[in-house]
Design goal:
The protein has 581 residues and is mainly α. Helix content is 61%, strand content 6%.
Length: 581
């Protein structure tokens, strides 16, 4: 029997598999979904139309020439599409990392200058190196150490900082300082000096963008505003009326070149790159997870680190700034119908055409238009809904988010990200240091019920069943022992206290010594210490520290019912007195 001819789809799948096997190309592109090729291309072109003016706005946030915003939509996008793991994540310029860059580099060089851009490119290369190192060490889990609470506060603070910075552009008021509070003071002091034509153009652009978002979300309002104001500026000579323009923009594809890097530059810029590194890991991972869950395609976070690292390295080598996985642009891609990195490649191809053929008219674009576009982006970062949810769920987390936001606005973005990390880790330590505890009692309907940890609450006569809500380690062992001693001392008639270890999966050496001392103290009072629902991990730690022998094998149980049945036997308690020192 002869071989059947291969169908086009099977040939395409085999070719894709071959390329992927040799080059290790991103699963974000392959396998190609039959019938979706054209829709992905259309989605990519549509995203480019919406993203080009926004990318120029991000360049203004970063303090680099507007053309560098378009550069972030070219080779960095291609690098992540080929090497990353997430199908839906869009990696390009982002407001949060752009703000970190501007704040960190501005003390070293004047924003907008060649020196500033050189430092920005160095930051991108260092950040890329850190991300690739994280991939080699499989540190994708680091994204879990910034809580949603501090991210709400951090991004809200960045939104206020960026929004205040561009209000001056929208009003025609120069802002000499890069400090947010100083900028706000300058704006308030110079309100009578507002430039009326600039303000009118800004209000028209804001109305157009917000109007299209409200009533026609698929219409690229920002792009229409850019094209319309370029045309109006050319015809009505905005520059003659005092409206500041971008000026000449050099077109063409960005050249590959290694920026001048000295060891002193690396040391000075490493904190900025570190802040970008943390922001990129957390924001990109959160975005990839959110859209992966939505489309049932969970990404490989460690592979994403490789894609993000190479995207940033390419950004630095092509004369632009750090790139990040953007939640807003990923959502925009989805709204256009894009479901894979193929759409992102189409976006990059569209931007390449614009860079080669259409940069000439940009010289007529008013700066206040980019300010208005950035202001809308900044306003969307202020997560008032998130703050309301935090207020409703718990005042502590609300105050943590508020503190983070105030630190970003008052101290700067890089200090804000450091504070966010410290607050997240302290919050984690706090939860482990003083976890939830309780005493367990019987309930006729649900069998067991947890009550507050107060003395005198017995599960059976003379027996207290105490629950501790996390692993035992050196920091929380004193709290654990103190609470049990208090329960025993204030509960007349107690003869047995059983620790429910369902949440205790491990115990370090310090906690083990504390448990042994507690066992001896209780024994001196004539009270038995027992452990129930002992996990395999905890049992291993007890054996290694010889605590099983000291406490007594017969005082370790698999279930609550088993432990209560044992101490209900009047012959059992005298038989175990030999384990009381």
């Amino acid at each position: 029997m002869g071989n059947a001819p291969h169908s086009p789809s099977s040939l395409r799948d085999r070719l894709a598999s071959f390329i992927q096997g040799i080059g290790g190309l991103s699963p974000g592109i392959f396998p190609l979904v039959p019938g979706k090729f054209l829709s992905e291309i259309i989605a990519g072109v549509s995203l480019a139309a919406m993203n080009i003016p926004q990318a120029m706005g991000y360049a203004r946030i970063a303090g680099t020439p507007v053309i560098t915003g378009l550069y972030t939509l070219l080779f960095p996008v291609i690098a992540f599409a080929l090497l990353g793991g997430a199908r839906s994540l869009f990696v390009a310029a982002d407001s949060a990392t752009a703000a970190i860059l501007a704040t960190g580099v501005s003390p070293m060089a004047l924003p907008g200058t060649a020196a500033f851009l050189g430092y920005a490119s160095v930051v991108a290369i260092i950040t890329g190196g850190l991300l690739i190192l994280a991939r080699l060490l499989r540190l994708g889990f680091l994204a879990d150490f910034l809580s949603r609470t501090v991210l709400i506060g951090f991004l809200t603070g960045v939104g206020f900082q960026v929004g205040i910075a561009v209000i001056g552009q929208m009003l025609g008021i120069p802002l000499p300082s890069s400090v947010t509070l100083e900028q706000l003071r300058t704006i308030l002091n110079h309100l009578p000096e507002v430039h009326a034509p600039t303000l009118i153009v800004s209000l028209i652009v804001l109305s157009l963008i917000l109007g299209t978002r409200r009533w026609a979300p698929k219409v690229p309002g920002a792009l229409i505003a850019v094209i319309g104001t370029i045309l109006a500026s050319y015809l009505l000579d905005f520059g003659h009326h005092g409206v500041r323009l971008i000026g000449p923009v050099e077109g063409g594809l960005p050249p590959f070149a290694l920026p001048r890097i000295s060891w002193s530059d690396v040391k000075a810029l490493l904190p900025v790159a570190g802040a970008c590194f943390v922001m990129i890991i957390t924001q990109s991972s959160a975005t990839a997870r959110a859209f992966g869950i939505k489309h049932h395609t969970m990404p490989d976070e460690n592979r994403d680190l490789l894609g993000l690292g190479m995207a940033n390295a390419v950004a630095g080598l092509t004369g632009t700034f750090v790139v990040n996985g953007s939640p807003t642009q990923t959502a925009m891609l989805e709204s256009c119908g894009g479901r894979s990195q193929l759409a992102n490649l189409a976006t990059a191809a569209t931007v390449a055409v614009v860079l080669i053929l259409l940069t000439g008219p940009l010289k007529f674009l008013p700066l206040c238009v980019l300010g208005a576009i950035v202001f809308v982006v900044a306003a969307s970062m202020v997560d008032l809904r998130g703050f309301r949810k935090l207020w409703a769920c718990g005042r502590k987390e609300f105050h943590v988010a508020l503190l983070t936001a105030l630190a970003v606005v008052g101290l700067g973005v890089e200090y804000g990200i450091v504070l966010a990390i410290i607050v997240s880790l302290l919050d984690h330590v706090r939860r482990g240091y003083q976890p939830r505890t309780g005493v367990v009692v019987r309930d006729p309907e649900i069998h067991w019920r947890m009550e507050k940890t107060v003395p005198g609450v017995f599960v059976e006569p003379g027996v207290i069943l105490y629950w501790f809500g996390t692993d035992l380690y050196y920091a929380n062992a004193p709290h654990f022992c103190q609470e049990i001693r208090h329960l025993v001392a204030q509960s007349p008639g107690v003869r047995v206290i059983i620790v429910d270890c369902g949440a205790i999966t491990s115990m370090d050496f310090t906690a083990g010594r504390a448990l042994l001392e507690l066992h001896a103290d209780l024994a001196a009072r004539g009270v038995i210490l027992a452990l129930t629902r002992v996990t395999e991990g905890l049992r291993k730690d007890l054996n290694l520290q010889h605590l099983t022998r000291d406490i007594g094998e017969e005082n370790l149980f698999r279930s609550r019912k088993q432990s209560l049945a044992a101490y209900r036997d009047p012959f059992y308690i005298p038989s175990i007195q030999k384990h009381i020192p």
